[in-house]
Design a protein that fits this description.
The chain is an all-alpha fold. Helices cover 74% and strands 0% of the residues.
Length: 347
Amino acid sequence: MKKRWSSIILGLVVSTIALAVLLRRDFSGVRDELLGARYWAVLPCVAISIVGLWLRGVRWRVLLNGRLPLGRSFHILNVSYFINGVLPLRVGELARAVLAARVDPPVPPLTSLSTIVVERLLDTLAVFVLIGLTLLILPVGLEIGLVGAALGIGAVAGVIVLAVFARRPAWAHRLLDGVGRFLPLLHGPRVHRWLDQVLEGLVPLGSPRLAVQAIGWTAAAWTASVIAGYVMMFAIFDQPTWAASMAMIALASFAIAVPAVPGNLGPFEAAVVFGLAGAGLVESATAAPAVAFALLLHVVNLGSYILMGLIGLWAENVSLGDVTRAAQALRARQEAPALPEIDAPLG
């Protein structure tokens, strides 16, 4: 409990500092930009974002090897994004596992959580594809390109290792036995049963057909995110660029891993403005149009997640309190492995 409070306090400090830095120079300019914004851009942005969420629901169903109906995978995914947007400590990922376990036949929680690990690895690859495309368009230093390439190679290596274990689960058990000789806590039938559940979630990566489908749906979902960001930029900017959309989507995805208050208020805005500035759309990250756009985008983003999450709760016939309590109980049983924190800010 003490660790959780420390995380919450740290997040509050980070969010406060980030917002103070962004708004310290030209608050009146930000207000004027928001008053003069073209709010017609919000509706197509939200519509495209919902398409992106649907594509992610399709991908999750593929990773679960069809164990969930498409409608339920879509609604459960939306509930998880909603909870992540309004509650701290990434409870939404655990909520996804809890809701999938209610389906008949149920999906074991560790199977759901292992598919989320695969999702994050695929999303990491997608982010570095965006960074690579942005670097092809913009003149940047070689060091930035090398860092992006190194992280992308690491994500590819992770997917390859998981794919190997999916096709050769016995190898994963042998590795666990070897590690268990040095770490007794990882030795015993219970740990091997846990590993079997994790490997079950990796099955799609062991099938070339399902792996190609998962990669294809990932590409489609991130394309929708970039298009939604591009359309949304018309609210503030007269001449948006695709490079700016790709840059701010990529950086905002990393902002999810930064400690902050629920909804990533502060780090999200900072990531967006630095993406816009890096792509040359604004002269500086603290320029009033950039800050105004980041705030507006965040409101639209959270509003979309809340709307679709509430619809998801209604479709699943559960309350927010019931889901969060069950998710916290799952964490208390220590059945939830640590999950990578990266995702698209739009759909």
